[in-house]
Design a protein that fits this description.
The complex is a heterodimer. By secondary structure, chain A is mainly β. Helix content of chain A is about 0%, strand content about 50%. Chain A has strands at about 5, 10, 20-25, 35-40, 45-50, 60, 70-75, 80-85, 90-100, 105, 110-115. In chain A, the strands form 2 sheets. In chain A, strands 2, 4, 5, 6, 9, 10 and 11 form a 7-stranded mixed sheet that branches. Chain A has a 4-stranded antiparallel sheet with strand order 1-3-8-7, with no helix packed on it. By secondary structure, chain B is mainly beta. Helix content of chain B is about 0%, strand content about 55%. Chain B contains no helices and 10 strands. In chain B, a hairpin with a 6-residue loop joins strand 4 (about 35-40) and strand 5 (about 45-50). Classes of the chains: A mainly beta, B mainly beta. The interface of A and B includes residues 37, 62 and 101 of A.
């Protein structure tokens, strides 16, 4: 069965970077892209960007351009999302999800807390 | 950039009642590229509907989607206790992808 398993919760200071991983299994990795979505406490869903599982092409939301990098490791079928220059309002649950259009399988989410 | 506006913000209904949720796009979505998700507290979203009206695998037939262009609807024909949750629409016809702000369906 399709599974996306994300890395554990992180606590970071303002200005630091965080790298969240998403291990995919149960399907042919290169056939699907992975989308990253975040959700601040009590808020809605925010699309951050997408990476192709086939060739690593990316499409980032303009809001995160220059601060986010998404990468893939096809040998381990793992996708990474790094967010730099963290601010307090980056505190959120970060989800990876399969698909570049609609997302049919989701990871469990990774809580990133930015605190001094 | 396509903005999605969902209404109402909160829907208070009783089990067994019909729920009708609306999602309006700021520009027309080609090929009805709109999806609906259900999210329960502390959980990841779950895909319900894609292509505006196609049910995802394993989704009960009490969930249905309709609409095209800029106006879309998610209908839950008879609410079950497990359906009380937050529902988001999402467009994937344009970049950047975007979500609506959500509709909470709560027990009356």
């Amino acid at each position: 069965q399709v599974q996306l398993v994300q890395s554990g919760a992180e606590v970071k200071k303002p200005g630091a970077s965080v790298k969240v991983s998403c291990k995919a299994s149960g399907y042919t990795f290169i056939k699907y892209g992975i989308t990253w979505v975040r959700q601040a406490p009590g808020q809605g869903l925010e699309w951050m960007g997408w990476i192709s599982g086939y060739n690593g092409n990316t499409n980032y939301a303009q809001k995160f351009q220059g601060r986010v990098t998404m990468t893939t490791d096809t040998s381990t079928t793992t996708v990474y999302m790094e967010l730099r220059s963290l601010r307090f309002d980056d505190s959120a649950v970060y989800f990876c999800a399969r698909g570049g259009g609609y997302m049919d399988h989701w990871g469990q989410g990774t809580l990133v807390s930015v605190a001094s | 950039e396509t903005v999605l506006t969902q209404s109402p913000g909160t829907l208070s209904l009783s089990p067994g009642e019909r729920a009708t949720l609306s999602c309006r796009a700021s520009q027309s979505l080609s090929s009805s590229q709109l999806a609906w998700y259900q999210q329960k507290s502390g959980q990841a979203p779950r895909l319900l509907i894609y292509g505006a009206s196609s049910r995802a695998t394993g989704i009960p037939d009490r969930f249905s989607g309709s609409g095209s262009g800029t106006d879309f609807t998610l209908t839950i024909s008879r609410l079950e206790p497990e359906d009380f949750a937050v529902y988001f629409c999402q467009q994937y016809g344009n970049s950047p992808r975007a979500f609506g702000q959500g509709t909470k369906v709560e027990i009356k």
